[in-house]
Design brief:
alpha+beta; 5-stranded antiparallel β-sheet; 2 helices; 50% helix; 32% strand; rod-shaped
Protein backbone atom coordinates (compact mmCIF):
# COMPACT_ATOMS: atom_id res chain seq x y z
CA UNK A 1 0.00 0.00 0.00
CA UNK A 2 2.82 2.37 0.90
CA UNK A 3 4.59 1.70 -2.39
CA UNK A 4 1.42 2.58 -4.30
CA UNK A 5 1.11 5.87 -2.42
CA UNK A 6 4.78 6.66 -3.13
CA UNK A 7 4.34 5.88 -6.81
CA UNK A 8 1.23 8.06 -7.02
CA UNK A 9 3.00 10.90 -5.21
CA UNK A 10 5.99 10.60 -7.53
CA UNK A 11 3.73 10.67 -10.61
CA UNK A 12 1.89 13.71 -9.24
CA UNK A 13 5.20 15.52 -8.63
CA UNK A 14 6.39 14.68 -12.15
CA UNK A 15 3.14 15.99 -13.63
CA UNK A 16 3.50 19.23 -11.67
CA UNK A 17 7.11 19.66 -12.83
CA UNK A 18 6.10 19.02 -16.46
CA UNK A 19 3.24 21.52 -16.14
CA UNK A 20 5.60 24.13 -14.71
CA UNK A 21 8.11 23.66 -17.53
CA UNK A 22 5.33 23.86 -20.13
CA UNK A 23 4.09 27.16 -18.69
CA UNK A 24 7.63 28.54 -18.44
CA UNK A 25 8.48 27.55 -22.01
CA UNK A 26 5.26 29.14 -23.29
CA UNK A 27 6.14 32.42 -21.59
CA UNK A 28 9.69 32.33 -22.98
CA UNK A 29 8.46 31.65 -26.52
CA UNK A 30 6.07 34.62 -26.28
CA UNK A 31 8.91 36.88 -25.12
CA UNK A 32 11.14 35.78 -28.00
CA UNK A 33 8.32 36.16 -30.54
CA UNK A 34 7.63 39.71 -29.31
CA UNK A 35 11.33 40.55 -29.53
CA UNK A 36 11.45 39.20 -33.08
CA UNK A 37 8.48 41.34 -34.14
CA UNK A 38 10.08 44.45 -32.61
CA UNK A 39 13.33 43.64 -34.37
CA UNK A 40 11.62 43.29 -37.75
CA UNK A 41 9.70 46.53 -37.27
CA UNK A 42 12.85 48.37 -36.23
CA UNK A 43 14.82 47.05 -39.22
CA UNK A 44 12.06 48.09 -41.63
CA UNK A 45 11.78 51.52 -40.01
CA UNK A 46 15.53 52.12 -40.14
CA UNK A 47 15.78 51.05 -43.77
CA UNK A 48 12.83 53.20 -44.78
CA UNK A 49 14.14 56.20 -42.85
CA UNK A 50 17.58 55.95 -44.43
CA UNK A 51 16.09 55.75 -47.92
CA UNK A 52 13.65 58.60 -47.20
CA UNK A 53 16.38 60.88 -45.84
CA UNK A 54 18.60 60.32 -48.86
CA UNK A 55 15.69 60.79 -51.22
CA UNK A 56 14.62 63.95 -49.39
CA UNK A 57 18.03 65.49 -50.03
CA UNK A 58 17.93 64.42 -53.68
CA UNK A 59 14.45 65.89 -54.11
CA UNK A 60 15.55 69.20 -52.63
CA UNK A 61 18.35 69.46 -55.20
CA UNK A 62 16.27 68.20 -58.13
CA UNK A 63 14.65 70.53 -60.64
CA UNK A 64 11.94 67.99 -61.45
CA UNK A 65 10.92 65.90 -58.42
CA UNK A 66 8.74 63.60 -60.51
CA UNK A 67 11.68 62.59 -62.70
CA UNK A 68 13.83 62.01 -59.62
CA UNK A 69 11.14 59.81 -58.06
CA UNK A 70 10.91 57.80 -61.28
CA UNK A 71 14.70 57.35 -61.26
CA UNK A 72 14.49 56.06 -57.67
CA UNK A 73 12.02 53.35 -58.73
CA UNK A 74 8.75 54.98 -57.69
CA UNK A 75 5.65 54.44 -59.83
CA UNK A 76 2.98 57.07 -60.34
CA UNK A 77 -0.51 56.25 -59.10
CA UNK A 78 -2.63 59.32 -59.64
CA UNK A 79 -1.04 62.22 -57.77
CA UNK A 80 0.95 59.91 -55.48
CA UNK A 81 4.17 58.05 -56.15
CA UNK A 82 4.70 54.60 -54.61
CA UNK A 83 7.73 52.42 -53.97
CA UNK A 84 7.08 48.94 -52.58
CA UNK A 85 10.02 47.31 -50.87
CA UNK A 86 10.02 43.86 -49.26
CA UNK A 87 9.66 45.11 -45.67
CA UNK A 88 7.96 48.49 -46.17
CA UNK A 89 6.47 50.83 -48.74
CA UNK A 90 7.17 54.50 -49.36
CA UNK A 91 4.63 56.96 -50.66
CA UNK A 92 5.53 60.41 -51.98
CA UNK A 93 2.96 63.19 -52.27
CA UNK A 94 3.99 66.31 -54.20
CA UNK A 95 2.26 69.52 -53.16
CA UNK A 96 2.90 72.88 -54.79
CA UNK A 97 1.68 76.20 -53.43
CA UNK A 98 2.01 79.26 -55.62
CA UNK A 99 2.65 82.60 -53.94
CA UNK A 100 3.37 86.08 -55.25
CA UNK A 101 7.07 85.69 -54.55
CA UNK A 102 7.59 82.14 -55.75
CA UNK A 103 6.63 78.52 -55.42
CA UNK A 104 6.65 76.38 -52.28
CA UNK A 105 7.02 72.74 -53.23
CA UNK A 106 6.70 70.08 -50.52
CA UNK A 107 7.22 66.38 -51.07
CA UNK A 108 5.81 64.37 -48.17
CA UNK A 109 7.46 60.95 -47.85
CA UNK A 110 5.42 58.47 -45.81
CA UNK A 111 6.61 54.99 -44.87
CA UNK A 112 4.14 52.19 -44.11
CA UNK A 113 4.49 48.58 -42.98
CA UNK A 114 1.49 46.24 -42.87
CA UNK A 115 -0.92 49.17 -42.99
CA UNK A 116 0.83 50.94 -40.09
CA UNK A 117 2.43 54.34 -40.70
CA UNK A 118 6.04 54.28 -39.54
CA UNK A 119 6.83 57.97 -40.15
CA UNK A 120 6.18 60.95 -42.41
CA UNK A 121 9.09 63.10 -43.61
CA UNK A 122 8.39 66.40 -45.37
CA UNK A 123 10.89 67.72 -47.90
CA UNK A 124 10.06 71.39 -48.59
CA UNK A 125 11.75 73.63 -51.16
CA UNK A 126 11.06 77.30 -51.82
CA UNK A 127 11.68 78.42 -55.40
CA UNK A 128 11.81 82.22 -55.62
CA UNK A 129 10.57 84.06 -58.66
CA UNK A 130 7.49 85.43 -60.30
CA UNK A 131 4.75 82.86 -60.60
CA UNK A 132 1.95 83.32 -63.04
CA UNK A 133 -1.51 82.86 -61.48
Amino acid sequence: MKETNRANTLLLELLLVILFFMLASTAIVEVFAGARQKSLRSRAENGALLLAQNLSEDLYAAEDPRARLAEAGFTAEGEDWLLAEEEYSLKAEIREEKTEAGLLRTVLLTAERNGETLFALPSPKYIPGEVEP
